[in-house]
Specification:
2 domains, Rossmann fold, 12 helices, 287 residues
Length: 287
């Protein structure tokens, strides 16, 4: 905190973007530095989060407005910039090119299981059970996988761990099974793949709320946990393919979310400090 306050004093920022930290948002407010709060899903009605949102000069949401929670107030929405797809590559490879990049055959069903870095990932046992229930498909996992002593995996499962190009894996897949972190969601929506979304445990039930919003929006098939039997896997996969709404997924991603967010931040800072001056006058002061 002392380092940040010292930086405030020397840099005199026009605006600070707080990436979900309610504590840093409050520090900025105490130091009279205007802040923008990044909006996350979840049960965030606690005093800390509400103070951070109320004290923010603006709210930045890296997802589409159709994925809003029903409990978000009109006042919160009014000062929110929804930039759907912020931080995600805008170009998606075709399936054939993506498969060449990740080293799998051009033809044949590929099911991708992926988890992010916020937790310990999915369990090995249910993934193996799914692969046994659909032996003709090639199952690839990326990200963390919890090892289970009782897991017995068939030969059509491959664990690749952390990879530098998850978007290529998503583009290569016929079906994606994933957790519901922000970046993962935006990547799957951009690729518009059949999607079975399984929320992992996170503070404030963030992923469960996001999964619920995806279900309501018709963007994904959602289950509370990985299927626990061969029959349940068969139903889940069948329902995911049958319920796939590619066009709906694509409507939840904007063409230029980064530019939209940048212009909004520039305008916000200009309005706070130099209402009568061009936006470019404060460009170098924005963090």
């Amino acid at each position: 905190m002392a380092t940040i306050v010292e930086w405030f004093d020397t840099a005199e920022p026009a605006l600070m973007v707080c990436d979900v930290s309610a504590e840093i948002a409050q520090l900025a407010r105490i130091c009279s530095v205007p802040h923008v709060m990044v909006l996350q899903h979840g049960d965030r009605g606690d005093a800390g989060h509400q103070a951070a949102y109320d004290g923010a000069v603006g709210i930045l949401a890296p997802f589409h407005t159709d994925l809003s929670q029903t409990d978000w107030t009109p006042a919160l929405r009014a000062k929110t910039c929804f930039a759907a797809g912020l931080g995600v590559d805008q170009v998606v490879l075709d399936r054939g090119s993506a498969r060449e990049r990740i080293g799998v055959p051009k033809y044949g069903e590929v099911i991708l299981v992926m988890a992010g870095g916020g937790g310990s990932g999915f369990s090995q046992a249910p993934i193996g059970l799914g692969a046994r229930s659909r032996p003709g498909a090639r199952w690839i996992t990326i990200g963390p996988v919890q090892r289970d002593w009782h897991a017995t995996e068939p030969s059509n499962v491959e664990h690749r761990g952390w990879v530098a190009n998850p978007a290529d894996y998503i583009a290569a897949a016929d079906l994606v099974i994933s957790s519901t972190g922000n970046t993962t969601c935006q990547q799957v929506l951009r690729a518009a793949r059949p999607w079975l979304a399984i929320p992992e445990w996170r503070y404030f039930d963030e992923q469960h709320f996001k999964a619920g919003a995806l279900s309501v929006a018709g963007a994904a098939s959602v289950l509370s946990h990985l299927p626990s039997s061969a029959a349940a896997w068969a139903r889940a996969i069948s329902n995911t393919y049958a319920g796939h709404r590619q066009e709906r997924q694509l409507t939840l991603i904007e063409d230029a979310p980064a530019e939209k967010a940048a212009q909004w931040l520039e305008s916000l800072a200009a309005g706070l400090w130099l209402p009568a001056s061009p936006v470019s006058a404060v460009d170098e002061r924005i963090v």
